[in-house]
Fold each of these.
Amino acid sequence: TIKMIKKIACIGAGYVGGPTMSVIAQKNPHIQVTVVDMNEARIEAWNDDDLSKLPIYEPGLDAVVGEARGRNLFFSTDVDRAIDEADMIFISVNTPTKAYGKGKGQAADLKFIELCARQIAAVAKSDKIVVEKSTLPVRTAQALKSILDNTGNGVNFCILSNPEFLAEGTAINDLHHPDRVLIGGEDAAAIQALVDVYASWVPKERILTTNLWSSELSKLVANAFLAQRVSSINSISELCEVTGANVDEVAKAVGQDSRIGPKFLKASVGFGGSCFQKDILNLVYIARSYNLHTVADYWEQVIILNDHQKTRFAERIIRTMYNTVNGKHIAFLGWAFKKDTNDSRESAAIYVADHLLEEEAHIVVYDPKVPAEQIYRDLDALGTRSPADNRRLVSVASDPLSALNDAHAVAILTEWDEFKSYDWREIKQRMKRPAFVFDGRKLLGRAELEALGYQYYAIGE
Ligand code: NAD
Ligand code: UGA
């Protein structure tokens, strides 16, 4: 039997664990929330007195942490102690695509999840509710339960699935006003305990409860549907470019149908982020493992189209610049996978840059939030060329004008608002002629840029 939750622990202080637990603590001052991570530098940053130094940039996060930290919100590296004290333990660790062995390149790597389960089992001396917050393959709860029950000290573990739907850049708003909170489980008392945590601020009708497998699967499906919309409109963007239709006009006309809806139909250089690709690959892998090859092929196309969109943008740049970018200075505005985040995991910018670097272009990157070492790390991780070559061909500017000085071309990779407010007349004076702009986010206006004398290319026009 489970009573009211007094102490929560969360393993994993990343993009999900950090913001999610901060809001749970903010809205439940009577619950002590401890977020733990084995990454000491990350925990240190979460505890920094200077709230601008938090490890994650997310609008509004500093205020929430400022309100709750030290009151009932704590960040620590003492994983065992947090597990020992908690009534409820969220697992919010990373679940990347497997990079080795069976399912390499598709399946989710669950080694961090399993390590958490074994640690919880080893430490727990009282009954625990264990909550899957990470995105997991359907039926992972079964494996977790088996590990916990077989390696534990005879205490009772109850597993819930509670996937997170926040998007980066809008995490705090998404957490404060979720479309829904999803809780899957078998034990009514445990489900109710978690419902009560969210009911502190989420209207009851937005808290859905299902069985475990529906909850686990719904998370993968939600991301697959979202990514599919982006790939659908991106596929149409290519058709627009050859037919004279404009993809924004098509998206508006199509999206105004209330059955289709207007959101998530913005054509782009391709979706990025740590999750869309990983979760669809995982869905494809699961479908194949049940021999559902037609289903798997269907969802795989979402990824194939997205890869095509990134390649096509890079090839368009090369073709337009007379098939020669060798030694040319191409300014990249934006490296993050979307605006208002410092996250660049799977960002389209990485793959577009890689393609241009194969042609020996010289890229100068400016991003308002992504630091230089992260940009080099992203490129080095591809393994396409040596770290020395990446540093020879790519430089990182700390202000936009020094990235744009003497550039042959500008490529817009992230839709940061500030790029719109730049003095594009002055920038033109600083650039080489003809001055090319390749707008991968449809951020600037064709009429304005052409009036200033730019050669302007935008996706889907
Ligand atoms: P992240 O990499 O930012 O954070 C994960 C953290 O877990 C890291 O700091 C890592 O050090 C820590 N960790 C891993 N194993 C550990 C262990 N055994 N003990 C202690 N700490 C450990 O990842 P994230 O972006 O927060 O994603 C976490 C999960 O949430 C993933 O499954 C992801 O699919 C899912 N998700 C992410 C988002 C998002 O916007 N990023 C949204 C919804 C769901
Ligand atoms: C996405 C989902 O929106 C969240 O609900 C989910 O919780 C999360 O994945 C996750 O599981 O990690 P996120 O990746 O943070 O959130 O950001 P999105 O706003 O979904 O954008 C993803 C990518 O798609 C970005 O590169 C974005 O630029 C691109 N995108 C999005 C488009 O190109 N066009 C659009 O219309 C929308």
Note: The chain has two domains: 7-210, 304-458.
Amino acid sequence: MSEVERVVSALSSNRFELHFQPKMRILDRAITSFEALLRMPLNSESPAPTQRIIEILESLGLIDELTRKVLIEAKKMLAALRVDNPEVTIAVNISPSTLSSTKWLDPVAHLLYTSRPLDGIIFEITESVELTTSKNLLSAVRELGDLGAVFSMDDFGTGFTSLMQLRTISLAELKIDKSFIERVQGSKRSRVLVKTQVDIAHSLGVLAVAEGVELPEQLNFLSEMGCDLAQGYLIARPLAAQSVGTWCSKYL
Ligand code: G
Ligand code: G
Ligand code: NA
Ligand code: MN
């Protein structure tokens, strides 16, 4: 079977998993959210890179089907986590093409059957999305907002979104890209950029989230800068669904 055939077959037989990576509030180390990250083990040894799988599914027009399944799994995890942590949220990554279509939404809303089925869901969209140039996209963002979803601007600092554009969506957080966090020890310029991004988040009234935090020194710096949340291997790697409960019970 070709790679493409294996991806299609994995999707149709539900051989995909979500892993969950926590986001920690820096002030008190509480876990406030988990980001769902797709993993697709195509055979026992080698999971395919997620980025590649997304590309294949997009090119075949199957990304909506994946998003639907991911969202249903994410909602299950959200319900399980909220038993002990009622304020927790789940972040789901969403590709630009999926965001502008919303075909995937009706079946989901129907299946979940509540008035605001996306309460507690954060959609992570990357900054490369042309948020205000596409009418479809803007109305999709509003529609999702009406269903309770909020947005996270992922990989912030790598694209060209203007502050005006950011004001038009129901934004909950800005995620400072890990390429900046990686350099904060060695580079004054990176430290200044991180500080600036934290301040931009706060001026928009949203949380500043640092991704790719691997070292205690990075966390200390972020704390001094007033960054709100941290995510990265220092706190936890993405966890398999069945490990999340155990991880939470051992945390702190
Ligand atoms: O965790 P990892 O390095 O494999 O993630 C690779 C990329 O895939 C990241 O950019 C992430 O945003 C994206 N990604 C992970 N899960 C999903 C998903 O369910 N849907 C979409 N569209 N992208 C995802
Ligand atoms: O595009 P997006 O920002 O969603 O992708 C995040 C990617 O970064 C995921 O693939 C995730 O597995 C990875 N990741 C998460 N934490 C860390 C970290 O501390 N260091 C590195 N290098 N990668 C990380
Ligand atoms: Na993300
Ligand atoms: Mn990111």
Note: DSSP finds eleven helices and ten strands in the chain.
